[in-house]
Amino acid sequence: MLCCRVHCCAPPSQDILWRSDDSNMEWPLHFNISHTSSLIACGIAMDAPIGIDVEEKKRKTTKSILSLARRYFTPSEVDSLAKIADSDAQQKEFIKLWTLKEAYVKALGRGFSGAPFNRFSIQLKTNSRIQITKAPKVCDDSDSGDYLSENWRFALTELNSSYYMAVCIEDNSRGSENGSVPLGLKVWKTVPFIEDTLVSGTDAVKLIT
After folding, report:
1. How far is it, in rounded angstroms, from Cα 209 to Cα 206?
2. Which of 43, 53, 127, 164 has the CA that lies 20 to 30 A from 188?
3. Where exactly are the structural domains of the chain?
4. Mean pLDDT score, 10-30
5. Which residues form the 4'-phosphopantetheinyl transferase domain (predicted)?
């Protein structure tokens, strides 16, 4: 089984400074793990929560894509998928959206049950930024969704033309004088005890957004 190690920071040139050994201080290292049947991905970030998800591009489903979307996604996301006529393209867009949502709820520290996918929509804007919006609240729904926030940065990549990987990291730079800084993303291909190779910038890692 292959392993993928992902380092994130904002800005990319940020120096890593380890804090003193004080039990009352929060450690700066955050990590998150995801896996498929043939790949393990570990996301690592400094001083910011991180979520990561990886899925096979050709993952088989027992139900139709739109049936799954209606069960888990928001109406606006279902409508967007329904407009895609080609079934293969529709499945790819579904998996991209799923990985982004999964990475987001994992970064929140809540997981799927704590932050259901139909509570928020994710949209890819024309400037390649990913926007999060709360879904309209159902009248008898006690979940206020107050835990949802927009101060997050995303990266969506294609690995070895076989997987989609989404990374979500808290963006503490929003509202600062310099605006939102770029997300630094470095990816290593790791075979335990055999190989640990930086593959960012190669054909093995294609940045989608």
Report:
1. 9
2. 127
3. 2-12+27-207
4. 53
5. 49-168
